[in-house]
Amino acid sequence: MAEIVVDYNKFDSLFHPSSIAMVGISADISGAFMMRILLEYGFQGKVYPVNLSGREVLGLKAYTSVKDIPGPVDYAFLQVPAHAAIQVIRDCAAKGVKLAALFSAGFSEGDKERGTELEQELVSIARQGGVRLLGPNCMGFYCPAARVTFCACSPRESGTVGALCQSGGNSIQLVRSAVQRGIRFSKIISYGNAADINEADLLEYFAEDPETKVIIAYVEGVKDGRRFFQALKAAAQAKPVIMLKGGQSEAGAAAAFSHTGSLAGARKIWDSLLKQAGTIQAYSIEECLDIALALLLMKPPHSRSAAVIGYGGGATVLAADDCYRAELFLPPLPQTIKDELKKVIPVTGNILINPVDFTLLYLSPEKMAQIVRIVGSWPGVDLLILHLRVELTDTGLVEQKLLEPLAEAFIGAAKEVNKPTALVVHAVYSVESYQGFLKVQQMCFDAGLPCYPSIQRAASAIDKIIRYHQTK
Amino acid sequence: MAEIVVDYNKFDSLFHPSSIAMVGISADISGAFMMRILLEYGFQGKVYPVNLSGREVLGLKAYTSVKDIPGPVDYAFLQVPAHAAIQVIRDCAAKGVKLAALFSAGFSEGDKERGTELEQELVSIARQGGVRLLGPNCMGFYCPAARVTFCACSPRESGTVGALCQSGGNSIQLVRSAVQRGIRFSKIISYGNAADINEADLLEYFAEDPETKVIIAYVEGVKDGRRFFQALKAAAQAKPVIMLKGGQSEAGAAAAFSHTGSLAGARKIWDSLLKQAGTIQAYSIEECLDIALALLLMKPPHSRSAAVIGYGGGATVLAADDCYRAELFLPPLPQTIKDELKKVIPVTGNILINPVDFTLLYLSPEKMAQIVRIVGSWPGVDLLILHLRVELTDTGLVEQKLLEPLAEAFIGAAKEVNKPTALVVHAVYSVESYQGFLKVQQMCFDAGLPCYPSIQRAASAIDKIIRYHQTK
User: Helix (H, G, I), strand (E, B), or coil: what is residue A308?
Assistant: First the structure.
């Protein structure tokens, strides 16, 4: 098996600093923004601005060098030009800084020759001085337990998803997208050009991290293919790894090289490598979160036999087709179940097979719950997809206020049935209905049910977790 | 070629009634909703409620039979139980009604034997009496020019998309989704079980309709395969036909049968039939609109060579991959163009190949416009995809107020370049950013540019229209 390079405890302590130096921070707003985010997020330890002028920043005394800081410094965040980084890292080494993150670009991703040289020099100084590096060209890390973040919208609660993300922008996007979906993180580590700490280190770390139940990885390229593959395989054996590989196309690979200096490699090689390693491959940040939600909130379904229950005849027909394309099977309901349904639901204008459409019942949340209980209790199905539309009807008959009772009925019945269940709230268009959508999503989150904006996305995520569980 | 069955003018007049009878309408809110929608939408002709009690509805005098209405009646909308429909259609025939739409379910889609019989009786009475039927199990039609609609959110302006839609719910969904996307309709005809007027009639009608430039068809099953195929082929030769086929899976087909009494048929047969007929196949209502937008607002691209311009390194890498998967080609920029770009954009922290990322420029809309002009003027690319994020940055540096100038810069430059261009506003999460998204979408609509919520959806729509234009 793979040789583990990372010392878990040592590594973990890097992400729990007691004191932070924000280097290159000037007093003007554009230089101080990362520090402001950190302070507003509520970091409890010491924060030391460092800049050439020594002028105070956001009310905090500044220093002209890391070395001048009176107390110890665990973590340094560097926003300095590439050419100035060498000296700062020397200072960090002298000061005993444990981890330095380089926000700055202008290394191997830019000028291949000079930038790569600079990067190597940086790493060698850091290594000699016992400093670990994140980046260059990264956002640092987000660790709710340590009250450290790079993103103003970061939730304060810790969660169970750990993410390594080679792109700073995608790291922010990951937090932003996850907030509303109800996904919380143990840590997100933005690692940019991976000059020192790389994807293999982080996979090893997250594989061991007891806080982390699911790993999301956005990777553009790897430093050492053999070690990466072993770390990936080991991580995927320990817990689900959802992989979004950036730079799968020629143009994407060229962009990845310009972005993080990564050699992205051929798509087919990656496809088979990710499959062999037992990872779950995703193609967008949204899809990473779709899959993470299913992994976290759905028990592994015993089979691909699903029941689809909702309202809208056309929506129901299309729901069945979407399930089919995701290779979910909708077994026809037996007569006994149909007979039970007929006691609750009028046959006319409804579809009582599987998918089940009860357009004529959406006015009655209680009856909706009953349908879910009847269909869900049938041993012929092992998972449920329940769908509703925020714009329930356009007739003026049903108000938005019915939305919550309807969602509540679905959620309550799903809990009773206790089979893996996803809730779908169909895409919406107006600001009002978007608010309704967010409300239902929050209700699902509170109840521990995964919520999706379309049957297609729910079905695809379920398909992927079933495939994953089958390989275990 | 196909024998044309439909007399265009006669057919078209059906959708421009001067007077409407709303039959089965009671004075209570649940019975009167369709009438309220019609009145609020501003129908200019006479509206006559018909119900058993003869009690007035929404302030209008009611009649106990269609036959008692004093003036002529062009269109009757029936919300009566299946068993009562026969007599009403008899009355309609006696009255000289030209078109009757049956909202009611309970025909061939429900009880196969008795329902089909009832439906056939209905058709035979209607035909003898010179009444054309829509439905049963349909919403009637939406024709902005005639001020007739079935949906409270219907725009008053006419557009150039004509839709035939076998599902009433999907018809409403089509209007709702289209409103914000900036798509307007010539007519949407909801035709349900297709007992009389069917998909072939409607395809023939829309093929000839000078108001209609693009046809969207949601079809679950067909009555006469041979005639349908000929009508579809003829329509697709006259103008683009986007087809969403409901019931492609076994469960979906069973649902379609329960929904509109349709025999949906095997997926593979449909796939090849739709391809042979020269239609563009879509898999969701959203995708129908994505494709319609591209058809209406993008000139046919000369080739698959695209340039992708936006900000965010990771987003740019993923954008390239999404284009690749849609078989769009991003040719590397030549040195001359790169040299021009370097005068505007710093190399460090940006990606100057193709895709082009100018993260460090998003504060300057003017420079953004310059980049688009430089790249867009290069003859090596025949289409542009420009992308921006509503949540520009999370740093607190850039406010939402920069969004509009940025979008304006993109739109203005795209107009100057005058190559087929799509704008992408990446998916957003908070209510505020959703409002920003809607704002930019509206700006695009006003400027005549198609707007998409993801690169993936833009690229896929462009791929489909390129394939379509190639077959012409």
Answer: strand
